[in-house]
Amino acid sequence: MPDRLGVARRLRASRGYWAANLLLDLARGRDRRHAALLRLRAPAGLFQPFGTTWPDRYAEIFADLSARLASVDAVRILSFGCSTGEEVAALRQHLPEADITGIDISPERIAICRATLPQAMAGRTRFEVGDSVCDEPDAHYDAVLAKAVFRHWRLNKPTVRNNTLLAFDRFEREVTEMARIVRPGGFLLLRHSNFRFCDTAVFAGFETLADAKCATPLFAPSGARLPDQTREAILFRKR
Ligand SMILES: C[S@@+](CC[C@H](N)C(=O)[O-])C[C@H]1O[C@@H](n2cnc3c(N)ncnc32)[C@H](O)[C@@H]1O
User: Fold this and answer.
1) pTM of this prediction?
2) Fold of 59-238
3) Where are the domains of the chain?
4) Residue 2: pLDDT band by 50, 70, 90 thresholds?
5) Separation between Cα atoms, residue 82 and residue 107, nearest integer Å
6) Cα(8) to centroid of ligand 1, in Å?
7) Ligand 1 binding pocket, CB closer than 6 Å
């Protein structure tokens, strides 16, 4: 009696299966295609390859953030992993006068951001292709956001007990850069990550302000899966 499950597993792990899937995604178009191009190019800095996003995905968080920034003149915000720009457009509704920068590793997604940006917003919105915030100036932003970026889709399976797909060091390196470019008193907003900000060394310079429902499995720096939790800390203020 052949082990059908074992055969299916071996098939899915084969290079042929990987290549066929990739070709299918390239042909499917839009986000499948953008993600397939990223998987094909495999840039060193890549975290989440999928660009899943939608307008008003973070309505509550953005209302909270904009209220906290209400008394700040000339607000500057950076969205890391902005995908096709819906998040930037939503932020803009809350903060019409802010300077907003969107960075994404996918040139195809940044092209969509630029093409769909209304003329009226062009002067105060910048979209850049990039894989890190490391070239941004120190203490420059009032708020820096990374949502649904520091994650790997294969870690969503409840059976994954150990994370061998996404290195905690890479997450820590990038959030340390993000922390560097936030001004003292400014905000860091992290959502839907596979790691906790409180496990990084740079967290010591922040206080936690808000949490939200946790829908993403969390992993320790060692790679071990953490017990499921109902809430995750998402909003932090730099001391
Ligand atoms: C799931 S989307 C998140 C979109 C939006 N932030 C949201 O939460 O709705 C993840 C995005 O992160 C981008 N990304 C992954 N690694 C990146 C990196 N190293 N630098 C910049 N963007 C990255 C992907 O290209 C993708 O567009």
Assistant:
1) 0.92
2) Rossmann fold (3.40.50)
3) 4-41, 59-238
4) low
5) 12
6) 31
7) 45-48, 50-53, 57, 80-83, 87, 103-106, 109, 131, 147-149
